[in-house]
Design brief:
485 residues; alpha/beta; Amidase signature (AS) enzymes; 11 strands; 13% strand; glutaminyl-tRNA synthase (glutamine-hydrolyzing) activity; transferase activity; nucleotide-binding; ATP-binding
Length: 485
């Protein structure tokens, strides 16, 4: 039962083959047994979970269930959930219990009747590409416990890969859904900016952050996005658009599809074995009836430096609220108010968060704003324009998700720049606000390789269709790590 898709689980629950309480218990028992080694979850509350499952069973019995009612899900610990500890992977929020639900949590729990298995580990305040910056320790990749699962949604990715949960939520600021999905042999979708509400999602970089689904397949992601998406008046960046069924085109044939291959993604810098798997995927798409065309994203090489000006600038502003006054950690010993601020933040934040706050404060400071922040925003517009031009000759853009497979724990910890380059193929998508997704496309040295698909604005249904048809023709997404029965 634990390896079934969301659709299959929904059918089993509807047919009374299993109850939500029984299904949730299966996953809770696995978490209890396997999580100490993988460290995917930071908070589990069996009593709360089973109470939610019992309520879901009552909805099913009353005939008022939706398609995902009773299905367990893991929640990235960046989403506030009423009554649940919500830490953002940081010491400064290590004991914070959220007093309200994020919109995503509300939609899944209250509206859809899904069951929370707990909160998953993550890079501190979503800052990282390896899930090694968490106050609660690194997450281990189920494919190789000596390697990283990717970040910052690494806990969610590892939980699904180890089947501690059938699906999970993630957030993506510069690749934080797609990169861990790629490194853990999963499917993950970052929607168009504004499609999923950010209300109750603790902010890192407000103009880049976007919540999205993570699952074993494109079909799973489509079903989750149907629940997550929608206008929210409490979020000023939420877009008011008609409701969509993101699963409507899953089985549509790919004949006539034009796939753009950016020449900048197929040059130097990508591991040869990773590129070979991507090329095999391109060949499979051609067999499925799609055509390919070369496109260019000439400013994509500037995405990493632009991102690491804009994101830290926004982070330095967003994280100023964590000062020890209103909530979260407060330094135990201090002389005056200024001393309390400094000691609280020095003790409460980890090294990577401090690094980005300092960079952000610097680029926003008098005399440097025009030279750095304003210039980065201009580059951001150029990058977005490159995508607009590329989509004139193609329907979707394809390339690698990550330049390498999962690297070893500690391998890049001492070199922040090398760590930042892990997101070289994903960051431009966030800067442009476009939808993008990662899906399994093979293995290199026994480790998963992820394919990235990028769509035009609000083209999530097409992306999911393109991914689903590939997954119908291949079985990469069905492969499981050794030792995960």
């Amino acid at each position: 039962m634990i390896h079934k898709s969301l659709k299959q689980l929904s059918q089993a629950l509807a047919a009374k083959e299993i109850s939500s309480v029984e299904l949730s218990t299966l996953f809770l028992d696995r978490i209890e047994r396997l999580n100490p080694e993988i460290n995917a979850f930071v908070t589990v509350d069996r009593e709360k979970t089973l109470k939610m499952a019992a309520a879901a069973d009552a909805r099913i019995a009353a005939g008022s269930a939706g398609p995902l009612t009773g299905i367990p899900i893991a929640q990235k610990d960046i989403f506030c959930a009423e009554g649940w500890r919500t830490t953002c992977g940081s010491k400064i929020l290590a004991n914070f219990v959220a007093p309200y639900d994020a919109t995503v949590i509300e939609k899944m729990h209250r509206d859809a009747g899904m069951v929370s298995l707990g909160k998953t580990n993550m890079d501190e305040f979503a800052m990282g590409s390896s899930n090694e910056t968490s106050f609660f320790g690194p997450v281990k990749n189920p494919w190789d416990r000596a390697r990283v699962p990717g970040g910052s949604s690494g806990g969610s990715a590892a939980a699904i890969a180890a089947r501690l949960a059938p699906a999970a939520t993630g957030t993506d600021t510069g690749g934080s859904i797609r990169q861990p999905a790629a490194l853990c042999n999963l499917t993950g979708l970052k929607p168009t900016y504004g499609v999923v509400s950010r209300y109750g999602m603790i902010a890192y970089a407000s103009s880049l952050d976007q919540g999205g689904p993570m699952g074993a397949s494109a079909e799973d992601c489509a079903l989750l996005l149907n629940t997550m998406a929608g206008f929210d008046p409490r979020d000023s960046t939420s877009l008011e658009r008609p409701a969509e069924d993101y699963a409507r085109d899953l089985d549509k044939p790919l004949a006539g599809l034009r796939i753009g291959l950016p020449k900048e993604f197929f040059g130097e810098g990508c591991d040869a074995a990773v590129m070979a798997a991507v090329q095999d995927a391109i060949a499979e798409y051609r067999r499925l009836g799609a055509s390919t065309v070369e496109v260019s994203l000439p400013n994509s090489h500037l995405s990493v430096p632009a991102y690491y000006v804009i994101a830290p600038a926004e982070a330095s502003s967003n994280l100023s609220r964590f000062d020890g006054v209103r909530y979260g950690y407060r330094a135990p010993d201090y002389g005056n108010l200024d001393d309390m601020y400094m000691k609280t933040r020095a003790q409460g934040f980890g090294d990577e968060v401090k690094r980005r706050i300092m960079i952000g404060a610097y680029v926003l400071s008098h005399g440097y704003y025009d030279a750095y922040y304003l210039q980065a925003q201009r580059i951001r517009r150029l990058i977005a324009n490159d995508f607009v031009a590329a989509f004139e000759s193609c329907d979707v853009i394809l390339g690698p998700t990550s330049p390498t497979t999962a690297f070893k724990l500690g391998e890049k910890s001492a070199d922040p720049v090398q760590m930042y380059l892990s997101d070289i193929y994903t960051i431009a998508v966030n800067l442009a606000g476009l939808p993008g997704m990662a899906l399994p496309c093979g293995f290199a040295g026994g480790l998963p390789v992820g394919l990235q698909l990028i769509g035009n604005y609000f083209d999530e249904a097409r992306l999911l269709n393109v991914a689903h048809r590939y997954q119908q023709a291949t079985d990469w997404h069905q492969r499981r790590p050794e030792g995960i029965e």
